[in-house]
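Milestone M4 deliverable, item 7.
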Amino acid sequence: MDSNARERQRKYRREYYQRPEVKARQKERMRIYHKEYYQRPEVKKHRETYHKSYQKEYYQRPEVKKSQRDYMRNYMKRPKVKRYYRELRQRTRMQLREKFFEMYGSACSCCGEMEKRFLTLDHINENGHIHRKKKWSEGVLRDAISRFTPDEYQVLCFNCNAGRALNHGVCPHSPNEPETSIWDTKPSKGMRQRRNLRKRLFEKYGAFCSCCGESNARFLTLDHKLNDGSLERKMAGGNKSLKLWRKALREYDPNKYQILCFNCNCGRAVNNGVCPHIDNPPLAICDGQ
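Output delivered:
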């Protein structure tokens, strides 16, 4: 075959394979072939082994690890992503709370409070701080839901829960509560400073809840009116509570700080900054009895 014939043949083949119907036929043929080829057991096994070994080696490279870390840091700083994960955590936590209340009851085991936004999980054996160190609050709720153990967990309102912590495991509502003031007890050396700061706070800002009127000192705490307590705690560092209490005493700003009971304080956090008493006003002011 001479050179002119070979050139004509090449030209014809180029023109032939550019035709739309030929392209479509070739594409369909290759699709069928690839589909059949990748279904072969030996090909599947080879691809699976190769991809696993390659991916394992690839993701162990230092530059890949650094690139992934940098990307995730920047990704999690995006406002939309922050808002999405915050809302997701809130929804998950609310669902877990609902399941917990269905299993363990929807009222405080001590005072009978039935507003769910005031209720929380309590460790009967007073080992909650140890449990929370191992797992976050969502993990503690999942543990309580996964195995129904009423001898370990119970439902309490925030007041009774925090009151037990401040009162050596006995709720101030309990009839076994000794008739002594919180200031008459002899605290340990580490608690003396906290007790004195709390006393000075109540003397300056009032010794009762600004929302519901609760006057038992064991149920009271400092609240940020502008809902910026989390930001201040981040900036404080170290022993956050003591630093915030000193700042509130030093500045004395009733427009920024107020005294609330634990129910109203934590209820505001659960209810987007609005105390549930505002949605459903209490019938009578709780007097701590």
